[in-house]
Amino acid sequence: xxxxxxxxxxxxxxxxxxxxxxxxxxxxxxxxxxxxxxxxxxxxxxxxxxxxxxxxxxxxxxxxxxxxxxxxxxxxxxxxxxxxxxxxxxxxxxxxxxxxxxxxxxxxxxxxxxxxxxxxxxxxxxxxxxxxxxxxxxxxxxxxxxxxxxxxxxxxxxxxxxxxxxxxxxxxxxxxxxxxxxxxxxxxxxxxxxxxxxxxxxxxxxxxxxxxxxxxxxxxxxxxxxxxxxxxxxxxxxxxxxxxxxxxxxxxxxxxxxxxxxxxxxxxxxxxxxxxxxxxxxxxxxxxxxxxxxxxxxxxxxxxxxxxxxxxxxxxxxxxxxxxxxxxxxxxxxxxxxxxxxxxxxxxxxxxxxxxxxxxxxxxxxxxxxxxxxxxxxxxxxxxxxxxxxxxxxxxxxxxxxxxxxxxxxxxxxxxxxxxxxxxxxxxxxxxxxxxxxxxxxxxxxxxxxxxxxxxxxxxxxxxxxxxxxxxxxxxxxxxxxxxxxxx
Length: 488
Ligand SMILES: Cc1cc2nc3c(=O)[nH]c(=O)nc-3n(C[C@H](O)[C@H](O)[C@H](O)COP(=O)(O)OP(=O)(O)OC[C@H]3O[C@@H](n4cnc5c(N)ncnc54)[C@H](O)[C@@H]3O)c2cc1C
Fold this sequence. Notes:
CATH class of the domain at 291-476: Mainly Alpha
Shape: globular
CATH topology of the domain at 291-476: Butyryl-CoA Dehydrogenase, subunit A, domain 3
Distance between the termini: 56 Å
Oligomer: single chain
CATH architecture of the domain at 291-476: Up-down Bundle
Bound molecules: flavin-adenine dinucleotide
Helix content: 40-55%
Number of strands: 14
Strand order of the largest sheet: 2-1-10-11-7-6
CATH superfamily of the domain at 291-476: Butyryl-CoA Dehydrogenase, subunit A, domain 3
């Protein structure tokens, strides 16, 4: 049994010697890990590794690999039971609540989808992808790794298929194949933690059709493979990630980091390839990946919103409004939105189906509904948070002003709260609310598009329902109003 510690994880990231284009230049190695815009994400992930060693969390976070029987982290496990799926939602909620943001240990969500699809491809085509997938997951578990899901292609004109784009690299593609492996060219956008993860799990962002065979590629690439170039994203509040500021960012310790990842002719050996050209299986892979991943939203966004609800309640208390009826009602609405997201995730897990040789895959309609509900609910949560907190979210002076001796006494006086709560407490809580709503840790962006857009979930739900259960509902409606047969 090997369970990585936070310290070992940080050392891994230093050893991987990532290169990152940021602030107009290029940095590498330790400078990436210690960069003020990257470090908070490294710290967040390191904290999840340390959680695995906490005595009180061992039963909660650890399990046995169904491949080897070895004790492993649940963040590398392939869900085999409904209980495993529910636990996945719960550990995500726990971790996100503890750090106040995305805990980023969710690439293993892809594993049942990967196993189920590779098995089907092998049965139809005589390929060996399933064995590759099994061996890869065993390696991932044994080394207790973290992966970055590399799915989102640039996509150019969204209405054109991959092979119809004027630039052939608008979707990541295979440009060479030989006896040893394949070569990838293109890019993946919006990559969370690409310089904070050991591995990239590369998969198509959409279903591909005949003619787009070069784009039907699924494989695993070491995060620092030759030819990978990471270009840092620009964030709102980037300027607050500075050494001389302590709390102006709202969540001083933890934060995200996203990149554009360029694949400049990256070689991948065959044993790490799980799909290469089998265009007719891209729909199965993409849909099952969505079904496996999206119930986790019911833990992810809820853990994050738990912190938002707590911050808003704390703010109402120091504002003296916590017991005012409309504030209580609004806090209760926030709780209701949050628990609705959670319930959707749990329901998708409870109604899961076992895929032979793979694992438990949540119900596709309920899974997509979880993400769709979350993509809207978070905006209600944010609206209510802003309502209760007031204009201070966008108008509070900076920490530097709070610390300027010439004016600090004014701010200490005019931002003091009920029961003599110090102004700095009000400011810190407001900054956290700002972080979670409109700032560097805003949960709305991750809920709107992270893991697939609400619209993509809606389309999937429609097509998964279009035959059944929609048609039996039509028959029921007709029977009840007297234009259908009674026996139906
Ligand atoms: C915080 C965050 C973290 C993320 N992390 C990752 C990550 O780690 N890995 C990763 O791979 N991706 C990641 N993503 C990307 C995410 O999966 C995508 O943003 C999402 O799938 C939407 O794709 P897009 O951004 O290209 O938007 P688009 O696909 O351009 O969508 C924009 C709008 O256009 C509509 N649209 C698009 N195409 C069509 C069409 N053909 N017909 C009709 N309407 C269409 C969509 O429905 C949507 O309403 C992350 C995103 C965010 C915001």
